[in-house]
Amino acid sequence: MRTTVGIIGGGPAGLLLARLLHRAGIDCVVLEARTREYVEQRQRAGMLEQGTVHALREAGAAERLTAEGLVHQGIELRFDRERHHIDFPSLTGGRTVRIYAQTEIVKDLVALQLVEGPPLLFQAEALAVEKPESDRPVVRFRHEGREQTLTCDWVAGCDGFHGIARDAFPAGAGRSYGHEYPYSWLGVLAEVPPSCDELIYARGDGGFALHSMRPPVSRHHPSKEVASLPSGLPVSRHHPSKEVASLPSGLPVSRLYLQVPNGTDPDDWPDDRVWDELAARFAIDADWTLNRGPITAKSVTSMRGYVHEPMRHGRLLLAGDAAHIVPPTGAKGLNLAVSDVRVLARGLIELHRTGSTQLLDGYSELCLQRVWQASRFSDDMTKMLHAQPDGDAFDDRMQLARLRRITASRHAAAELAANYSGLPLSL
Ligand code: APR
Ligand code: PHB
Question: 59, 347, 381, 398: which could form a disulfide with 19 (CB 3.0–4.6 Å)?
Answer without folding.
Answer: 59
